[in-house]
Amino acid sequence: MEAYRGDSYGEAFADVYDEWYRDLDDLGSVVAFVTGELASSSEGTGRGNPALLELGVGTGRLALPFATAGWRVTGIDSSRAMLDRLAAKDPSTTVTAVLGDMVDDMPSGSFDVVLAGYNTIFNVLTAERQRELFRRVAGVLAPGGCFVVEAFVPDDPPRTGSDLTVRSIAANAVVLHASVHEPDHQRAHGQFIEITEAGGVRLRPWSIRYAGPAELDEMAAAAGMALSTRVASTDRAAFDDESSHHIAVYRMSAQ
Question: Which residues does residue 99 pair with via DSSP β-bridges, in sequence order?
């Protein structure tokens, strides 16, 4: 998408993100799932105040519940607008916020868990950059730590062409969703087009490069990590051929 930048999504969605996506996950279930995965590692059992790095932390939808549960949380995001929303909700700075690109500006340190929630990994727009992200994550994981990735499973066969749908409609506003799908490049991009009686037209662009579970597993393996868990949801529903999304947990290989 022409003129789309690393911070375009965050700058466009910061003011509506919490409203539009507040029901994405049972947040308590997410915290319990990640805590359980860390505890299942021999090195991870018995740790107090484990360290979490969230990629694409946004407004703190996931990061703040982890901080409340006693985790030491660092979050990185390329959008100043998103981090300003996080700061407004977190005046005591329980989450250490880093403004930067999740690949190029990966925070240094030793993290028990690195988390990429709700398709965040697909915001990295090339296969090469996604592979580099896995390598950078491997470099900051503590012994026994894990990389938790939540993502949708691409359609098979993949979607192609363009779509225009209605996201929401009210007496004084309508939100349309226009999208274009390019399966040859595993790319999709689009706009949420918000039309209000008072404010006119507001465009909210997005762009992703998607990958299936097998490709993500290959990227992890190339970075020295191996799949330890794959489920369809944080309540550990079984993942199968009918699953529309998955949560994958990768750990550093023993050798």
Answer: 77
